[in-house]
Amino acid sequence: MGVLDRFRLDDQTAIVTGGNRGIGRAIARALGEAGADVVVANRNADSGAVAAEEIADATGAETLAVPVDVADEDSVRSMVDSTLAEFGDVDILVNNAGIVVHEGIEDMTLDEWNSVVQTNLTGVFLCSKYAGEPMRAGDGGSIVSVSSMSAFVANYPQRQVAYNASKGGVESFTRQLASEWAEHGIRVNTVAPGYIRTDNTDQADAVDPDIDEVWKGEMLMEEIAPPEDVAPTVVYLASDAARYVTGASVVVDGGYMVR
Ligand code: NDP
After folding, report:
1. Residue 234 is assigned to a structural domain of this protein
2. Is the dihedral of CA 73, 97, 250, 2 positive or negative?
3. 214-230 pLDDT, tens per residue?
4. Which of 73, 119, 126, 197 is the most buried (most CB within 10 A)?
5. Is any ligand 1 atom within 6 A of the Cβ of residue 142?
6. Which residues pair with 42 in a beta bridge?
7. Which of 26, 118, 13 is nearest to 66 (CA)?
8. What is the pLDDT of residues 99-116, one digit of tens each?
9. Domain tally for the chain?
10. Structural domain harbouring 109
11. CB of 196 closer than 6 A to ligand 1?
12. Looking at the annotation, which residues are catalytic?
């Protein structure tokens, strides 16, 4: 087998939470290009269906749109059941769904804190728990969570303690789950992006139009990258090319963390 063949995902079924837009959409498309069947799983049914159809047209992949709230246990269980009904297995889970609240702790409400932690961290727990069932029952799998460089550094100038705490939790969760599920042949890793141009970063730009320049000044590559710059790392971590990689974080941040 040639080295590029090891990145192929033919006959694999992948669930991508938040696969309808932003980073998740680029990941869903890339997994489809690599040969996987792709489940686009997010809250908004209409945009999920459009994304699934466009990815199928563009890549030839089999796709399915499944509405899900990753913070809701019944909804996550039903997402996995729908995937099994359509494709018969789950081989790859990409925990990508995430939200941010830009608020100082002085003004942050408990509801805001809970919404961030429940989506970004509890969602990773629930999706891994239920997608992990068919992986454990079968021949293993790969879980890739989209964490953030915010798990490792303090962000500036925006305020976002709940977000950073949730992403730190995802990193810690990942190392522990990798240890507990190695015996089932399940690899568990994260990709930790820096600033990527999506609705998420546009939200910060809407409040502070100069924020891009501050961010760029703090990184080596001075660029807010497109979502397509994160997707290849996820294909790698999901694939046999990363067969010996588990419990790891791959930072994709244009050199923010070394500055
Ligand atoms: P977007 O705001 O563009 O997309 C967020 C995605 O998450 C949407 O697809 C949304 O779909 C989905 N989502 C949100 N809440 C839920 C929920 N409860 N259940 C299911 N789906 C949900 O953000 P990004 O693409 O930027 O972010 C994707 C991931 O990347 C997040 O985890 C984010 O923290 C992380 N990240 C982003 C960075 C950036 O600079 N953009 C940097 C580092 C990490 P819908 O609304 O239909 O549910």
Report:
1. yes
2. positive
3. 999 999 999 999 999 99
4. 126
5. no
6. 67
7. 13
8. 999 999 999 999 999 999
9. 1
10. 3-252
11. yes
12. 148, 163, 167
What are the residues whose beta carbons fall under 8 Å from the beta carbon of 149, sequence distance 6 or more?
A: 192, 193, 194, 251, 253, 256, 257
DSSP-H helix ranges across the chain: 22-33, 45-59, 73-87, 110-117, 123-137, 161-181, 199-207, 211-217, 231-238
Please state the φ and ψ torsions of residue 140, each to the nearest 5 degrees: 90, -160
Query: What is the pTM assigned to this prediction?
Result: 0.99
Residue 139 lies in a domain: yes
Tell me, yes or no, whether 202 lies in a domain: yes
Closest ligand 1 atom, residue 22 Cα: 25
Residues contacting residue 172 through CB under 8 Å, at least 6 positions apart:
none
Q: Which residues does residue 15 pair with via DSSP β-bridges, in sequence order?
A: 39, 93
Nearest CA to ligand 1 atom 8: 18
Backbone dihedral angles phi then psi of residue 7, each to the nearest 5 degrees: -90, -10
- The CATH number that applies at residue 210 is 3.40.50.720
Q: What is the pLDDT of residues 128-143, one digit of tens each?
A: 999 999 999 999 999 9
Q: Write down the pLDDT at residue 229.
A: 98
pLDDT beyond 90 at 1: no
Q: CB-side exposure of 197: number of CA atoms within 13 Å?
A: 9
Closest CA to 7 of 207, 235, 201, 208: 235
Specify if 257 maps to a domain: no
Residue 115: other Cβ atoms inside 10 A? 15
Which backbone phi and psi does 9 adopt, to 5 degrees? -125, 30
Q: How far is the CA of 167 from the centre of ligand 1 (A)?
A: 12
Distances (CA, A) of 139 to 90, 95, 117, 128, 207: 10, 20, 31, 16, 47
